[in-house]
Amino acid sequence: MTMILAGCAILALMIAIVLTRRRRARAHRVESLPPLVFEVHDRREPRLRPAGFGPADRIGTFTPPATWPTPDGRTGPLPRMAPSARGYLPGWLEIAEGPHKGERIRFPRLDDGTSDYTLGRGEGPAQTHIQLPVTTVSRQQARMHYAAGRWQLVNLSQTNPTSVNGRELQEPAAEHWLQDGDAVEMGDLLLRFRAR
């Protein structure tokens, strides 16, 4: 019986030695491997496609790229839109929070006298629509109307109401005459209206 116990003890000792060596060899291999390196690819919001748009310090000199990413990640041609020789209407929207913070949206004077411009995530006429490809903005979010030297903001969305100074324009076609400094919220975008 003692021979059996001695044999079992020797066998257990040999197994323990083998397992310890394996553990040490594995630990040594892991420590000697180089660190892993991962590439990071940030997804940027697509560029805005407004009637007149550019950095705050270079209004009128903004040259858009030949192509831009669409909301589904593909790249398509950028619709070209040159402002008329008549320049821009007074007033603009400055992006205070959200993608492209600090840039301005201007509204060109059109030769046909049009003074209605739409804003939203969806497509629209190149001359009179400002595309805001931000997922929290409705396809047709709002309309800006210029009359008698003032801008009027009209809500077009039933699901994503537009807010001015924290007050929602709840119903579709609810309107507000904008004053200098008004804060306009559309989804994740916070825009500041500037009259001059």
Short descriptors:
alpha+beta, Tumour Suppressor Smad4
DSSP strand tally = 14
Bin the helical content: 10-25%
Shape: rod-shaped
Radius of gyration: 31 Å
* SSE succession: HEEEEEEEEEEEEEE
Round the mean pLDDT to the nearest integer and report it: 76
The CATH architecture assignment turns out to be Sandwich
Strand order of the largest sheet: 1-5-4-14-13-10-11
State the CATH class: Mainly Beta
Count of discrete alpha- or pi-helical segments spanning 4 or more residues: 1
In total, the number of domains comes to 1
Q: How would a crystallographer describe the biggest sheet?
A: 7 strands, antiparallel
Distance between the ends:
104 Å
Content of β-strand: 25-35%
Short recap of the structure:
The chain is α+β, with helices and mostly antiparallel strands and 196 residues long. The protein has one domain (52-194): Tumour Suppressor Smad4 (Sandwich).
